[in-house]
Amino acid sequence: MTIPSATPARAALWLNIIAALGSAWNSFGLTQWADFAFRTRSSLTMRGMTAAAADLYYGLPLWMTIAFAMGSGGGLTGCVGLILRRRWAVPVLAVSLGGYITLFAGDAMHGVFAAIPGQMAILSTVVAFAVGLLAVGLLAQRRALLRSRV
Fold first, then answer.
1. H-only helix segments in 38-142
2. What is the DSSP string of 17-53?
3. What end-to-end distance do the CA atoms of the chain give, in Å?
4. What is d(CA 128, CA 78) in angstroms, rounded to the nearest whole number?
5. Quick check: 21 and 133 in contact, CB under 8 A?
6. Positive or negative, the Cα torsion across 21, 124, 74, 91?
7. Strand, coil or helix: what is 150?
8. Distances from the Cα of 75 to the Cα of 48, 72, 82, 139, angstroms
């Protein structure tokens, strides 16, 4: 007779906790995305940005808004997938990471890091969280905690 070491639900409590925290983190990210997507020059200067920084930020290309949406929307969707124990969560979290890396590259390319103090630290943290969530998804997949059914 073999004795199972732990039930799947018990063994995956850590996954639920991390996925719930990741969902909260990415929900906040979606509010930041909405703010980014619907910005105006005056809304940016009202928050204390210089006119030059507001012009730069307002003039960023559409693909950066799309990358931000992929990052935050994909992160939230992927975390919900982890909570539901779905394998599709892993590729969705990979798309999220790709979106955030693209946003990071765009910020570097368009001079946002130089114009807005602290932006590099913020976006570096966001990318690190996305890497961590993808790593959690891959670990859950390796431990057979995710299933294929929709």
1. 41-46, 51-58, 62-83, 89-109, 112-115, 119-142
2. HHHHHHHHHHHHHHHHHHHHHT--HHHHHHTT--HHH
3. 34
4. 16
5. no
6. negative
7. coil
8. 29, 5, 10, 16
CB 140 within 8 A of CB 14: no
Instruction: Find how far residue 140's CA is from the centre of its chain.
Output: 18
Reduce the DSSP state of residue 5 to 3 states and report it. Answer: coil
Amino acid at 37: A
* Six-digit token string for 49: 């940005």
pLDDT in tens, 55-109: 888 889 999 999 999 999 999 999 999 999 999 999 999 999 999 999 999 999 9
List the chain domain ranges: 12-142
Residues 6+ apart with CB under 8 A from 143: 11
Contacts of 112 by beta carbon, 8 Å cutoff, 6+ apart: 56, 57, 60, 106, 119
